[in-house]
Specification:
By secondary structure, this protein is of the alpha/beta class. The protein contains 11 helices and 14 strands. The strands form 2 sheets. A 9-stranded mixed sheet has the order 10-9-8-7-11-6-12-14-13, with helices on both faces. It has a 5-stranded mixed sheet with strand order 2-1-3-4-5, sandwiched between helices. Helix 4 links the parallel strand 4 and strand 5.
Length: about 350
């Protein structure tokens, strides 16, 4: 089959994959189509972790007609037992003659084993169709396995002079409703949302997606001295992790743990960001959406663990040397600053959003 036709069918698989956005973690978003005689006879996508994989759904839809057909899937089929049985065995048993996949799975449990298994049974395998396009929806999954840490996105809203809030801490609202609504929708794309305790104390945020069809992210609070009010909205249920230090009062730790809230305690007086991310990785958290405030944003920048930035700018000037901006140690020289490449700019009436990815050149 021609490359152009392979790309057309892979585009359908990628479209299906994106239907699982926000629900599949810690698994990737995967779509699959079964094609025979130039026509799609089966479609499927991974709906959520623990449910059938895309290949299984597509093969079930195709039924017996799958024998002798081609399977298109945006990621290498798994060859191991996880929450579900290996997809390679279902593909072999269905009599598929050719598999086209966009990329090798970066998960060490797979990473080429699926391809090897399929070839052992005489199935032709083509890799690389729509490779770049396939990485985008699963960027967090790739970073998680390649960098051995969660994908980190920072989000902040600031004035034209770079202020996150006034000297009194007032930040409501720097941007307009349309920009804020877009920012809330971003939460549903990430597995966890992270803020510092000052944000909780000052704003008492909900930190939910608050969008129909979007999954609420897990809440992570960085709170070195465990100052979080026990009646804070973020503690409305147990889907919370609080990162604190050995200076936190033991009685308060126990009180939180009795409510089912997980408390991670680190030595020292400040929560070490890289160690926190290592702990989150152990808990299979693929992506973290960092909303601030200034100290937290600065600590992630200092740790050089930022993959994406959502920077909202409003056409106002706050002024004042004591007004709140991004903190942290920062760079001594411009050459040492984190480098990003702008991937898109959006406008919301008077506000502007710059979305930039980290440049690792």
């Amino acid at each position: 089959m021609s490359r152009a036709r392979d790309e057309t069918f892979m585009d359908e698989a990628l479209w299906l994959a994106k239907k699982g956005a926000g629900w599949t973690a810690p698994n990737p978003m995967v779509g699959a189509v079964v094609v025979k005689s130039g026509k799609i006879i089966g479609r499927g996508y991974h709906r959520r972790a623990g449910s059938a994989h895309a290949e299984i759904e597509a093969l079930a839809a195709a039924g017996r007609s799958a024998r002798g057909a081609t399977l298109y899937v945006n990621l290498e089929p798994c060859a191991h037992f996880g929450r579900t049985p290996p997809c390679t065995e279902a593909i072999i048993n269905a009599g598929i003659k050719r598999v086209v996949c966009s990329a090798i799975d970066p998960n060490p449990q797979v990473q080429g084993r699926g391809v090897i298994r399929l070839k052992q049974f005489g199935i032709s395998v083509s890799i690389g169709v729509r490779k770049e396009e396939a990485r985008t929806p699963n960027e967090a999954f790739f970073v998680f396995h390649e960098k051995k840490r969660p994908f980190v996105a920072l989000k902040f809203a600031m004035s034209l002079d770079g202020k996150l809030a006034t000297k009194k801490g007032d930040s409501k609202w720097i941007t307009g409703e349309k920009a804020r609504s877009f920012a809330r929708n971003l939460r549903g794309r990430y597995q966890a949302i992270l803020v510092g305790v000052n944000t909780v104390i000052c704003d008492n945020p909900h930190l939910g997606a608050r969008t129909k069809g979007k999954k609420n992210p897990m809440r992570i609070i960085v709170d070195s001295r465990l100052r979080i009010p026990l009646n804070a909205d973020v503690l409305r249920d147990a889907d919370v992790i609080i990162a604190t230090t050995s200076s936190a009062p033991e009685t308060k730790i126990k009180s939180l743990e009795k409510r089912g809230i997980r408390v991670l305690t680190f030595t020292g007086t400040r929560v070490p960001i890289k160690k926190l991310l290592a702990e989150l990785r152990k808990r299979e958290i693929l992506s973290v959406f960092v909303e601030g405030g200034g100290e937290i944003l600065g600590s992630f920048i200092d740790a050089e663990v930022v993959d994406r930035v959502y920077a909202f700018y409003a056409p106002i000037i706050i002024g004042g040397r004591e007004a709140i901006s991004i903190s942290g140690k920062g760079s001594d020289k411009i050459i040492d600053a984190l480098r990003f490449k702008t991937i898109s700019v959006k406008k919301f009436r008077e506000d502007v959003l710059v979305i930039a990815d980290r440049s690792h050149d």
